[in-house]
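Figure 2 data, in text form.
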Amino acid sequence: MGQAATFEKMGSYRVNEFAKLAGITVKALHHYDRLGLLTPLRTEAGYRVYRERDLERLEQIVALKFLGLSLRQIKTVLERTALALRDALRSQRKAIEEKQALLARAARAIQAAEESMAAGKPALQLLNAAADSAVARLTRQEY
């Protein structure tokens, strides 16, 4: 039975057990701990011990990461109120919508180039113009 069984009975897990349970790497858990995103308890010997509530917080981290938030943004959101989360989600949605629009323009430019090539016309000028336009838009958005 040993120590691992004792931890499980208490609803606590060593880092390897928790990583397996959560479907995440030990390296990621250590990284989240260093950043202060997910701070486990420590045994007297210094080993990390995770609890059930740590799994809930990890699920929040993974969900926000999936939405494209940086780990820095995630930490800020988790340390603040629901209002901060709403603002962060709105901001992330807008960023995704802008990327989506840029990708749609790129797809249209590629399609136009394909059609031009199929008609025996050069396509490089179309793609260069589309790329220049995209770079100009991104530059305007950044400043």
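Caption note: Helices lie at 2-9, 15-22, 26-35, 52-66, 71-79, 82-118, 124-142.
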